[in-house]
Structure formats: C-alpha cells, structure tokens
Amino acid sequence: MATEAKHEHCCDDPACHSGEEDSEPEVEAPKEPQVGDEEQITPDGGIVKKLVKKGERWRKPPTKCEVTVHYVGKLLDGTVFDSSRDRGQPFTFNLGKGEVIKGWDEGVAKMEKGEIALLTIKPEYAYGERGSPPKIGANATLQFEVELIGWTEAKDVSSEKDGSIMKKTITEGDGYEMPDDETLCTVTYKAFVKGTETPFESKENFQLHMGEEEVISGVEKALETMKKKEKAEITIMPVHAYGKEGCKEKNIPADATLVYDLELIDFDKPKSSYQMTAPEQLEYAEKKRLEGNQLYGQKKIARALKKYKRALNYVESDYRMSEEEKKKAKSLKLPCYLNIAACKVLTKEWPEVLENCKKALEIESTNVKALLRRGKAYSGTDDWELAERDFNSVLTQQPDNAEAKKELALLNKKIARQNARDKKTFAGLFQKLGKLEQEEERRLAEQKKQEDEEKAKKEKEEAEKKAHEEKKEEKKEEEKKEEPTPAEAKDKQAE
User: Fold this and answer.
1) Active site residue 81
2) Which of 41, 47, 101, 121 is catalytic?
3) Half-sphere exposure of 450 (CA within 13 A, CB side)
4) Which of 303, 391, 450, 491 has its CA 20 to 30 A from that of 336?
5) Mean pLDDT, residues 265-276 taken together
6) Is 274 left (phi over 0), alpha (psi -120 to 50) or beta?
7) Highest mean pLDDT of the ranges 9-18, 397-406, 480-489
8) Mean pLDDT of 12-33
9) SS3 assignment, position 183
10) Model confidence band, residue 184 (pLDDT cutoffs 50, 70, 90)
C-alpha cells in the first residue's frame, strides 16, 4: 500500500519509475558493536570477546606490533590471579609472536585502540591440561578484562629496506619537518647492545650536525625520519653500527646489533636556497664545495659527495640571479659536476659518471677532466671506441697527460686481452667446424661410394636381365626357323 500511494503522487514520466521493481537492495553497513555485545573469536567458541567499553572505530593493531595493555585475570569463580592494574604498570608484548597465551594473541588482535573487553578463554587457548600452578589449575577456563592502551609498530627506515634499521615510535613528534643533511640536532639517547640492560653510552641534550659522522650511520638515518620531540626505539644491525670489528672502547663486541632509546628534542635546519640572497647562495655553495674537497682528500668519499651535491643544489636554480651572478654560478657548477663524477668513478657507478660529465661538457665542451672521466666510464661499460675517442681528445689537448696515456694503455690491454680471448674462442670454434667439415666430407664420400655401388649393381642387374631377355628372344627366333612351313608340312605328310 505504501508503494501504491507513492506512485499516485509521482510524476507521469516513465523514467521516474525505471528500475524501482528490479533494483538491487541496499547493502547495510556493518553493525557497530554495542557495549555488552559478544563476539565469537574462534569458530569453536574457544575465545569469546564481550565489549565493555568502545574503542576508536576501525583502529586495530597490526600483526607483530608491540601492544600495551592493562588487564585483570580471573577464574570463573571470580578469583583474581593476576592484575597489571594492581601493579600500576601496563603490560607490553609483541602481538602474534607466541609471547602470551593463544587466547590473548587472537583476542587482543580483534580489539580497537582504547577498547575494554572481557575475554573468556577456554583451556585449549590458555594453559590447557597443565594449568599454571599454583594459581591456575588444569583445564581452567579464564576471564581477562583487557584494555588495549595502544601499540607501536616497527618500520624499516634503512635505505636498503632490508630491516637493518628498524624504528619503533614511542611518542609521536610535532609538525611535519624532519632533519636532513647538515641540520643541527639536539638529542638525548641511551644505547644498548641488544639483549643487555646496561647502556654502553648515554647522552643528554647532545648536539650533532647531520652528515658529520658524530654518531653511527644508523642513528643518523633514523633521525632523518623523526619529527621534533619524537621518541623512538631504534634497532640497528652491525652494518650500520660498528660492524665486524665492534668497538673495544665502548665494550661493543663484533657483529653486535644495537638498540637506541632516542629522543629528538629539537633541530635547526640551515637556510634553504630560496631563503637566501643570490650572493649568500654563491658563498654557501663555494663553502660546501671546499668542504667536499677536504673530505675527498681524506678519502671520505660518501661525505664529500654529499657536500658537492649540496653545493650544486644551491646554485642550480639561478633565476633570481643577475647575469654576472649566473656566470659565477656556472663556474661553481662545473667543478661540482666534475667532483661528483670523480666520486662516482671510485665507486664505479658509470651511468652517474656519464650524466655528470655530460653536464660538465655542456658548460665547457673541451674540459679535460670531464673527457677523461667520461672515457673511464665508457671503458667501464665496454664502449671501447667511445673511450678511446675521449682519451685521444685529452691527448690532443695535452700530449703529455700521464693519466690519459695510462688509461689508453689500460684500454689497449683490455682490447688485446679480449681479442686474444676471441681468437682462442674462435680458433676452437673454427677447429671444431673444420673437424665437422671433414666428417661431413667423409660421410658424403661414403654415401657417394654406396650410391655408386648400388648404381653399378643396379646397372649390372639390368644388363643381365636385358641379356637374358635377348637370349630368350634369340631362342624363340631359332625355334621359329626350325619349325616347317605349312607347305613343307603337307609335302612331308604326302610322302
């Protein structure tokens, strides 16, 4: 009736009614749990969760994170056998790793942040037939009132994403900015060898400049992901700590994994290029370039590379500069490109060498250092003709250039070695091919011999057959001659 009344007041347009009868029923949104609702966590009813207080909707802990809870554990008769609330200290465990009874691992995983729930757990999901004497007997069903306070999830912050630097945020930081290279950071930390309780190093309000190797690389990498006032637990594998050697001075054994309780109290980032005047940009870039040169001379290549890249970053954007300042910026870009290429030659990262040499040659097309380093990159990628061309270009400008001569000699040796390998490879191949050809010739000769023999045999048989036929015909002819004619036969009969 309600549907008919609705149609009476509707317009006459058929489109108004299209699909009314055949439309799919609306899917109801999941019912929001209410206080007092019970949820069967396992199909066999071994774990039942009763909602006591709602939590933050949809915020459930991920697998294997570290959760923090308050709980009160009771037997079915109401006897309390354990309580974190009585101790005044929340309990922390890693979810889903078997550190607690199965009923907790599965039950807490279904809770939301801030939720309080009553978990009723049968013995097969608790302490089973053995119980936990003296407080929990055999085959005891237990009840836990659990409050899920929160959780922390470890994140892989290593560049390699191989789990070598894991960060677990304990307290969220402020804002959105994070330190980067050359930022002045104020930190407090305690550092432990994993598995020990006594710190081997503690610092309060310690100031460090990012990129200056004042702390181990794992700590610097973690700081790059932290916000102001953030607290975190950092687990650092040996590759980003003290490696295979360890550190005797700090009693750190070889191949030790370290744990840092780290707080980033404050940081002060240097001015960005857009915050500087053009003269300031040029001055800052030159300073960083010179610092890079000093580090390069000390064979601290990774740090030198950062300095060169930072210097370049401050002069690459020159739209606010005067023509004279642009010329100065270009004169600064050139050594930066060349020095970055030099760093990458040492690490044999040939594509980056080629890229930076290309940019340098766009500024100065006959630059000897750019040609020389590009030649090394071409040699490294086995583009020998291009490498030879670059080395010869250097020697055309500087006939006595020792490095170009050395590289060209090395290239020629490399080419000679390859030619020798090719000769040996192809000599063996030709020898094999010659042998195959000889075998093929023998096979063909044998085949021809066989064919000739078969042909001769066939010709002989045909000749013999023909001779036999001819002889047979001759015999017939002779028999015909000996046979009397009809007249002779008649005369003979008359006689």
Assistant:
1) yes
2) 101
3) 6
4) 391
5) 92
6) alpha
7) 397-406
8) 53
9) coil
10) very high
- Tokens 């066989």 identify what position? 450
Nearest to 336 by CA among 375, 392, 284: 284
CA distance 361 to 363: 5
415: annotated active-site residue: no
- Catalytic-residue membership of 82: yes
Catalytic residue among 116, 121, 136, 144: 144
Please identify which of the residues 47, 105, 127, 165 carries the catalytic annotation: 127
Q: In which residue are the tokens 């637990």 written? A: 233
The catalytic residue among 22, 37, 44, 71 is 71
Separation between Cα atoms, residue 425 and residue 33, nearest integer Å: 76
Q: Is position 127 annotated as part of the catalytic site? A: yes
Q: How many DSSP H helices and E strands does the chain contain?
A: 13, 13
Q: Which of 82, 180, 261, 383 is catalytic?
A: 82
Segment holding 344, helix H or strand E: helix 323-346
Tell me the three-class secondary structure of 224-253, residue by residue: CCCCECCEEEEEECHHHCCCCCCEHHHCEC
Q: Do 380 and 348 touch, CB atoms closer than 8 A?
A: yes
